[in-house]
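Fig. S4 source data, part A: sequence.
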Amino acid sequence: MRVLFIIFATALILIGPGCEEVFFEKDAANDPENSFDFLWTTLSERYSLFEFKQINWDSVYAVYRPRVNAGTSDAQLFEVMAEMLNTLKDGHVNLRSQFDISRYFPYLEVAPNFSFDLVERNYLGADYRFTGFLLNQVFDSVGYIYYGSFQSSVKDWELDTVINRFNHERVKGVIIDIRDNEGGNPENGLKLAARLIDQRTHIYTSQKKFGPGPADFAPAENIFLDPNTDSPHFPGQVIVLTNRKVYSAGSYFSASIKAIPDVMIVGDTTGGGSGVPAGFDLPNGWYCNYSSTIGTLTDGFNFEAGVPPDVYLQLDTVDILNGVDTYIEYAKTEILN
């Protein structure tokens, strides 16, 4: 399987600072003004999504730079920097200090469209199986998987076990529920996707920012996924459930699903996160993560703001009160009909 190597939001702490010397030496004075200027300038040269987000970074500097001077405390400096970074509205952009981590959550202002308690009580039941991190059950001739984080690894034999169960119980289709999956290692999602294709498939396109100029991007690279031809594939119609809390590697998995014929995404637009994260050290010892690439669907759609579903749904309030998950019921009806 040939994939783009990505370490996503849930593993950002592992990203090393080894590439900061491309544009900067490490001898900048450790004072608030230099640290702020270093942060702003480095992002100006490396951040990949200014044009897509239509952000004038010079104007942002004009707003936030006057708030920093030689007497600015660490707490004040962190607050100013965090506010400036959040103008990017990017969950892969954050500032890490000894006392706090700034962050942007793309899902807090929208409906959650997911309750694990609702799903567990009314669909998984007391006898569902934990096959590794794949929670799985069969109800009404439909196979169901909940996979809550791509940070949790999935093994091929675990997928074999779940798929063989579905085949044994003669399900008519499968629901793969990744709601609230905030990312992790994209390889885990692609292991599932490789059980949905029978030929090499273009799943998305990536383009890396490589230099300080606004147009300094490497040529776009089409990323392909090879089928897992030696293992069982998911049976019947497959439907993937998403919400706004699906982010980073979750969005990349959703992007891959969009490229696979006859597989449907149902729910809400994902939270996005198409820019592959990278990072650098600041002169004062803090660390900043940022998006270093542009990710697009096979049709050229930039999914930084999210992968749209094929069928848009909101959880119905009356359904919730009645112990019904609107997403699951829609998917089940599609499969059975």
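Fig. S4 source data, part B ends here. The CA atoms of residues 205 and 222 lie 4 Å apart.
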